[in-house]
Amino acid sequence: MDKLSVVRKSRRSRSHVLLGSVMASILVAAPALAQTEESEAQSTDGAKAPLSSGTIVVTAQRRAQNPQDIGVAITTLGGETLASLGVTDSTDIDSQVPNLIIDPMAGSGTQPVVFLRGVGLNDFSLNNSGPVGLYFDDIYLSSFSSQNFLLFDLQRVEVLRGPQGTLYGKNTTGGAINYISNPPTDYLDGYVQGSIAEFGAYEIEGAVGGPIAEGVNARVAVARHFADGFFVNELTDRRSNGTDLWALRAFVELEPSPDARILLRFRADINDTPFSQYERYETIDPVTGGACSTGQSRAGECVDVLGYRDTTKRYRGNFNREESIDREVYGLSVKAEFALGDVDLTSITSYEEGQNLLPEDSDGSPLQLLAITVGADTDTFTQELRLSGETDRLNWIVGGYYLDERTRQNQSADLFRELRPLVASLAPATNPGGFDPFGAVLGTPVSFSRHKNQQDSQSLAVFARAEFALTDQLTVIGGLRYTKEEREFRSEAFFEEPTFRVPLYQADLAYSDDDISGNLAINYQPSRDLLLYASYSKGFKSGGFNGGFLFQAAELGPFESEQLHAYEAGAKWSLPGHIGYLNLASFYYDYSDLQVFTLVNTGNVPATILDNAANAEIYGAEAELFLNPVDSLNATFSLGYLESELVDFVSAGVSQAGNRLPRTPEITFSGAISYQADLSDDLFLRPSVNFTYTGHHFFLTENQPLAAQDAYWLVNGELTIGSDRGWQLAGFVKNLFDVEYNVNVNDLSDLGFHQVVVGAPRTFGVRARFDF
């Protein structure tokens, strides 16, 4: 481990020096860069209206626009809104976005599983990316390792629903989520904030920005979040399912001329959170030895294959493994903009690297039944170039995108270590170490397996999009994108013990594919306050390889590319008197060759399978209402309706046709209400409440009742007293009614249990903030 750490540090130093040289060369060679849209996407989300959408400007279509003027289903959350909703990391934003579900795969600090309008990927392998693209300051986060990060000093989040097959850096079939930081300003500003809450939680963050020289502005933001957690290990009396995070954001903006802007950005995220512990449902009847019913499992009447039954209360257990996540993510980017007459040129260059070690007590028990360690290191370089321009009736953009990524996985599965002494005593003396690595006791496999993969990926795309106003009311939009992707994948697996190694397989594979995607749309604005739109979009996501725990080379894949044809119609209405807006959207998806992850129980050892379903259908509708009848009152509501069906899919010989897609509740509903009362000329009191309703849904494509979550409500509240002079003091509560709910369930019936990732219980806290 020490040697590995030295190698990592050495590689990290070399890569940072190399990246610095590359960036410096780009900046020296580049001419003056353009100052594009003035005050790009500056939010008017003020301190007195934290839930107001106001007139937040978005850059969802690569230029500054009012979201009410865009014929696209988009939800925008400003920085003040996010703070008032209690959003602290990238997995929290789904609470106020219709038909969006984001869950951490294995608890706090682990990679997020993102499903948008039913489109997502359950896979926990760190070599794959999901069909919903995540962007941080316009940088595509290809690696799962970089997608879970703290949200602080944030200007806004934009959520685009539907395929993004034209403008966005990496083709995605589900949509795009862009997290956008507060940029440097030409005046001094900043804030300091701290909070304490139950379960040993505290958060400290702050930012400062302003001019440091003529034409040079900077901003630095730091955050520290910590919590012991709400889970208790009764064997050690230690807590888990908390957080232990550090983060840094640093920006330097150069404006060498009125037509020039260069933005340098550095990001660091460090995660030392103790790995979250699981609840579990045992699945074996202790009397008959057969499978338990769902009711028996939920009632705690069953056992696992070793005869263990968890009798502890919720949020408590007995765990023999307590280790921490070891994740470090560093990113450096340069965004350069410059004007060439009537044409704007934008260049975005980025490099990110992440090191991950995720050790878990997979069986959630005091016995050594299953322990998995997932490790992956990723290096990603991206380059995007865009040319854009406009006339009285035409807006156009053309560009290119390149991604180069290397992922190295080193992961292990320790299975049935509890039985090692028994196996050793029964195995033949001629067997090395007195151990049968292939499993020789009563048909029970006993092994420590290691799986190593290296994946090299390249993606190259060119794209073009144009908007042409046929009349003052009627606009047509068209876009095309050509994408070429290639992957090389080297994999090896073996059984491993201190005294010997037994190889299973070694494989060198390659995959490539190309595709043309795009969109056609029409916008009709019969009046200044009403926009009607209809669109067709095609999304494409490349195929790849299964990076899970495999024992046969044939299971590596490749799986094929998926395509989604989306048809959408909607309306955006600004309400009379400028008291708010109402947005409506309906959609139908024809989803073919969709990539589906299943954890298949074989009667021996669960197998991870990543394959293509022939097709699926998804349709639904969304409504978003914002009301601001008076300055002191804001209210937002969103409603999502979703139907999904796997039309044709067979996994491990079992048809799942007719099943709902995972994480697709039929109804999602949310709202947030804030009222501000002035106590004096500069003192105010602001109570606020927000809520989320999530309908019944399944976590797995098999649609098992045990791997499902019943409908539930979550309600959060906050009471803030503050001053126009910049200070605020708030008391808050999350999950006010202490609702018990699950955010993920994995079926390990071969071992006699289901893993259960639970949501957090009710939590009280106080927060103080000072803006300057």
Report on the structure:
The chain is mainly β and 772 residues long. It has a single domain (31-415, 446-771), classed as Maltoporin, Chain A, CATH 2.40.170.20. It has a 22-stranded antiparallel barrel. It has a five-stranded mixed sheet with strand order 1-6-7-4-5. β8 (189-197) and β9 (201-213) form a beta hairpin. The model is unreliable at 1-54 and 429-443 (pLDDT under 50).
List keywords for this structure.
five-stranded mixed sheet; 22-stranded antiparallel β-barrel; Maltoporin, Chain A; TonB-dependent receptor; Plug_dom; mainly beta; tonb box; disordered N terminus; transmembrane; 772 residues; 6% helix; transmembrane beta strand
The DSSP helix count reads 4
- What structural class should be given to the helix and strand makeup? mainly beta
Strand fraction equals over 45%
CATH architecture: Beta Barrel
Say which CATH homologous superfamily is assigned: TonB-dependent receptor, beta-barrel domain
Pick out the low-confidence regions: 1-54, 429-443
N- and C-termini, Cα separation: 45 Å
CATH class: Mainly Beta
- Write down the Rg: 26 Å
The chain-level mean pLDDT equals 88
CATH topology (fold) name = Maltoporin, Chain A
How many domains make up the 3D coordinates? 1
Subcellular location: Cell outer membrane
Domain TonB-dependent receptor-like beta-barrel: 307-736
Membrane topology: Multi-pass membrane protein
InterPro entries: Beta-barrel_TonB, Plug_dom, TonB-dep_rcpt-like
